[in-house]
Amino acid sequence: MLRPSPIRNMPVNKPLLTVEAGAARLELIVADITTLDVDAIVNAANRSLLGGGGVDGAIHRAAGPELLTECRSLGGAETGEAKITRGYKLKARHVIHAVGPVWNGGKANEEELLASCYRRALALAAEHQLRSIAFPAISTGVYRFPPDHAARIAAGTTVSELARGASSLKHVIFCCFSDESAQHHRAAFADLGLA
C-alpha cells in the first residue's frame, strides 16, 4: 500500500541563503520540491527513469501517470546523464531527470558522475531556455552519497557552470528535504566564499 509522502504538508520556507553566481540568483531552502513553481525541477532519478522511492517517487506521484508514460518513451539514462520531460500536474513546467551515482566509497568515479548530473541538468535548462530550476540533494538518499561531500559538488559545479555565463537561468534553487541537508549546502557555499 502506498503511503502519502511526509513532505506533502511541508511548507515552502523562505530562503536560508541567497547568493549570486553569474547572472543567476541562487537560493537555499527546505521545502517539498514537488510544490515549487519553477520552469524545471530536477528529479534524483534511477537509470530506468520510471520512478522509485524518495524524491523520485514523490515527483512521479505528484506529476501523475502521464509522467511515467513519457519516461517510458525515453529508454532510461546512464548514471551522470539527464533527460527532460514535461511537468504534467506539477507547478513546474518540466522535470529534468538526473541519474546520480550510488556511493561505493569514492572508488567508482562517483564525484565526477554526480558533478555530471548537475552539468547535464544545467545544459538542458540552457538548451530549453529555462529561467528557473530547483535541485534536490541528488544521490544523498538511498544512494548513500555522503551529504556534505554531495553538497560541495552540487554548489561548486553549479556556481562554476553559471559563472561561465552561457545559461538562460536567472534563478536556481537548492531545495533540501531537511535542515541537516540545508546546513551541508550552506557550508558548501561558505567554502566557496559565498556565504
Task: Give a structural overview.
- Strands 1-2-7-6-3-5-4 form a 7-stranded mixed β-sheet, sandwiched between helices.
- Helix 3 (110-127) packs across helix 4 (147-163) and helix 4 (147-163) crosses helix 5 (179-191).
- With 195 residues, it is of the alpha/beta class.
- The longest helix is centred in the middle third of the chain and has 18 residues, at 110-127.
- It has a single domain, classed as Leucine Aminopeptidase, subunit E, domain 1, CATH 3.40.220.
- The protein contains 5 helices and 7 strands; from the N terminus they run E-E-E-H-H-E-E-H-E-H-E-H.
- Helix content is 34%, strand content 20%.
Task: List the SSEs and their pairings.
Elements: E1 17-21, E2 24-30, E3 40-45, H1 54-63, H2 65-72, E4 82-86, E5 94-99, H3 110-127, E6 132-135, H4 147-163, E7 171-176, H5 179-191
Parallel strand pairs: 2-7, 3-5, 3-6, 6-7
Antiparallel strand pairs: 1-2, 4-5
Helix pairs in contact: 3-4, 4-5
Number of helices: 5
As residue ranges, the low-confidence spans are 1-10
Question: What is the β-strand count?
Answer: 7
Helicity range = 25-40%
Which structural class fits the helix and strand makeup?
alpha/beta
What is the CATH superfamily?
Leucine Aminopeptidase, subunit E, domain 1
CATH architecture: 3-Layer(aba) Sandwich
Task: Work out the strand percent.
Answer: 15-25%
- Quote the average pLDDT: 93
Please describe the biggest sheet, giving its number of strands, its sense, and whether it closes into a barrel. Answer: 7 strands, mixed
Element-by-element helix/strand order: EEEHHEEHEHEH
Can you list the strand order of the major beta sheet?
A: 1-2-7-6-3-5-4
